[in-house]
């Protein structure tokens, strides 16, 4: 009976966290899973501009707005609507509309916007454009929106094959292999040597190469705009290890076995096995409370409709070196240096995302 009650409490905690994230998505974006829930301040203006999917300007330029065409195509923080300008059958320019991508990431991905300039619709549809390294999800959002817009322009919607939808390039395949290894192998095999190898793979492949990790920005974006499963297989598997595994007794599985940030901190700690900074239980307890107070404060600010910008400064973003801000990089260096002397300092004493996991699995430790 006691076990059953624990499971019910854990499930209730999970639902509460889901509801909180849903409310935050509504407060920030006015929608849940792509469905409009409330009118946002800029909606009336946006509606006047994008009443039609396609309209014509006075100088005979045809403009295709992808807002309604690509509701299921998301970047890192949500949908990435575009306007495609066509004249005499060729693309003049592509313009990004308002979105919730991390500014530094989207600035990098925006370099793609000129890739189709001067091409005819047919030529542009055949053009293979690769994602910008360091801004993969934002890049995919742009590429997906361009594809939908061009399909609409050509009035010939081409249904992608299963493998085309998955975008199985070398990076994606490597990331899938590593995240599946992290999600499955530690359940059955717990040797220290393998754990070190897995952590190196998590850091090198999931972190620095794929730039994939769970963050508040990612979760709010998914809650707001929904998840395009085909282009988000790696983060979806990560989310399963973070929220579903604990329902079956595997608490903190993502943090312990999958998270590239946690892996990097643990690897840094292995460099110095002797001269660790000794910390009393009371000090560790107070620092743990600081993490919870920080999470509660940030959550309250978001529920009040302010302070969303903090999500752009989670230390995870430092893995994407090309796009990370100076502030994030400095924080990452500090965390890495502390990790040599203190086991997983960011995970234990700062990480707001980790607190959400803790609450979702109804854990007291």
TrEMBL record:
Signal sequence annotation: none
Source taxon at top rank: Bacteria
GO molecular function annotation: FMN binding
GO CC entries: plasma membrane
Every FMN-binding domain range: 75-153
InterPro entries: 4Fe4S_Fe-S-bd, FMN-bd, NosR_regulator
Location of the protein in the cell: Cell membrane
Transmembrane segments: 12-28, 172-189, 201-223, 229-248, 293-311, 317-342
Pfam families: Fer4_5, FMN_bind
Key word Ubl conjugation present: no
Keyword terms, alphabetized: Cell membrane, Membrane, Transmembrane, Transmembrane helix
The protein, known as: FMN-binding domain protein
Originating species: Segatella oris F0302
């Amino acid at each position: 009976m006691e076990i059953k009650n624990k499971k019910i409490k854990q499930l209730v905690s999970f639902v509460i966290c889901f509801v909180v994230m849903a409310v935050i998505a509504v407060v920030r974006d006015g929608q849940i899973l792509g469905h409009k829930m409330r009118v946002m301040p800029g909606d009336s203006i946006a509606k006047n501009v994008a009443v039609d999917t396609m309209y014509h300007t006075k100088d005979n330029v045809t403009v295709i707005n992808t807002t309604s065409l690509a509701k299921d195509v998301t970047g890192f923080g949500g949908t990435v609507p575009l306007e495609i300008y066509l004249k005499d059958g060729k693309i003049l320019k592509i313009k990004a509309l308002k979105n919730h991508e991390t500014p530094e990431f989207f600035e990098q991905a925006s370099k793609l916007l000129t890739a189709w300039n001067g091409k005819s619709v047919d030529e542009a549809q055949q053009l293979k454009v690769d994602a910008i390294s360091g801004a993969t999800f934002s890049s995919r959002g742009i590429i997906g929106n361009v594809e939908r817009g061009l399909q609409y322009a050509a009035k010939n919607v081409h249904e992608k094959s299963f493998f085309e939808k998955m975008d199985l390039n070398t990076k994606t395949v490597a990331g899938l292999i590593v995240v599946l290894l992290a999600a499955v192998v530690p359940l059955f095999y717990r040797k220290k040597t393998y754990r070190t190898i897995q952590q190196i793979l998590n850091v090198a492949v999931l972190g620095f190469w794929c730039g994939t990790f769970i963050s508040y920005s990612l979760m709010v974006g998914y809650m707001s705009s929904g998840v395009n499963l085909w282009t988000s297989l790696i983060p979806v598997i990560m989310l399963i290890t973070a929220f579903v595994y604990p329902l079956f007794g595997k608490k903190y599985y993502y943090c312990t076995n999958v998270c590239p940030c946690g892996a990097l901190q643990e690897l840094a700690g292995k460099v110095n096995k002797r001269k660790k900074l000794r910390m009393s239980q009371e000090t560790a307890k107070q620092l743990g409370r600081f993490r919870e107070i920080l999470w509660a404060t940030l959550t309250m600010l978001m529920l009040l409709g302010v302070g969303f910008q903090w999500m752009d400064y989670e230390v995870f973003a430092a893995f994407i070196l090309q796009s990370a801000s100076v502030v994030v990089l400095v924080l990452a260096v500090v965390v890495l240096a502390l990790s040599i002397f203190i086991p997983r300092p960011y995970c234990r004493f700062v990480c707001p995302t980790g607190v959400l996991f803790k609450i979702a699995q109804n854990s007291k430790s």
